[in-house]
Amino acid sequence: MKAAQIAAYGGPEVIEIVDLPTPEPGEGEVLVRAAAIGVGKPDFLLRSGIYKWKPPLPTILGNEMSGHVEAVGPGVSGLNEGQPVLVFGTGGGRYAEYNTVSTSLVTPLPDSVDLDAAVSIPNYIIAWALLFEAARGIDVKTAYVNGAAGGMGTAIIDLCRSQDIDIIAGASSDEKCAFVSEFGATHTINYSRDAVAEKALELTGGRGVDLAFDQLIGPRFTDSLDMLAPLGMVVSYNALAGFPEDELFAAMRARVGKSLAVRCFSWHVFDDNPEKAQQNIEAVVEQFAAGTFNPPIHDRLPLAEARHAHELLDARAIMGKLVLKP
Ligand SMILES: NC(=O)c1ccc[n+]([C@@H]2O[C@H](COP(=O)([O-])OP(=O)(O)OC[C@H]3O[C@@H](n4cnc5c(N)ncnc54)[C@H](OP(=O)(O)O)[C@@H]3O)[C@@H](O)[C@H]2O)c1
Asked: In terms of residue numbers, what domain contains 39?
């Protein structure tokens, strides 16, 4: 079988297409034939060697894949040959024509779920967990999201739209702002040009947003606290632009009259709570089956072009989700 593998950490050039024997499912595993493979920022983190949960080298990249069960290993019940499934779990392995995976990484999919759209389900699961677990207790009427045109950003917009939450979407170009506006954002901010907190306050009549979904953070992060409404929260799910220059606690005390919160979230919070993870996964799959969500697909590329896919990822050139086809 063909797979996209790395033997060293680095740029897109470290990705090699290799021929490997098709694996056989062991005890408690199934063999899944890929229909679609998702490309996302976590793949960049693994490729660059900065991912905390990285497997030993050489390793196959990828965290998300949809397909059909091809064979069932000993001791497996509840999964059958030919069944459509999602494989979702960090630590690589998905950029391949076939995967043998523990059933704990496999979610059965209803026939009504399109398998190309299904590779966006993990983004929606994170979005769901950010809104309903990480931001539990916040009464969210208006939210801000940055990196809004990417895979996670569009999932957050789509989820907020389904919950009647007004969304202010931030992106680095007018083209990306037009894209997210078309996709359902209530307002947009081009943060290459405009000051985010100022603009968000202007767009909310001075009240601010109840929740900010932040994957960037960055040196000027503490300024962005000004965009929050009283009792508002920033839920951070990465810090792609680096850490704040100013002392965060001091900045929060300086705004204590608004009683703000900042939470750093990782899906790995559920590593020891698989039931909770499963609840979030099932809630999102149910919404996909009902047709609630509509993930935008940037493009479909052959698996053999995995290196080019990562060039696009690194260039921040992807709007929506990039899908690899085996
Ligand atoms: N915490 C968790 O459990 C969890 C789980 C899954 C994913 N994540 C994180 O979610 C984030 C989004 O993933 P994704 O797959 O949606 O990525 P993506 O599609 O590549 O989108 C990321 C967006 O971030 C913006 N960006 C700003 N500065 C950037 C930089 N220095 N490098 C790259 N992008 C930058 C880009 O938009 P602009 O050009 O408009 O700025 C880009 O569209 C990643 O950071 C990933 O690690 C976290």
From this structure: 2-120+295-325
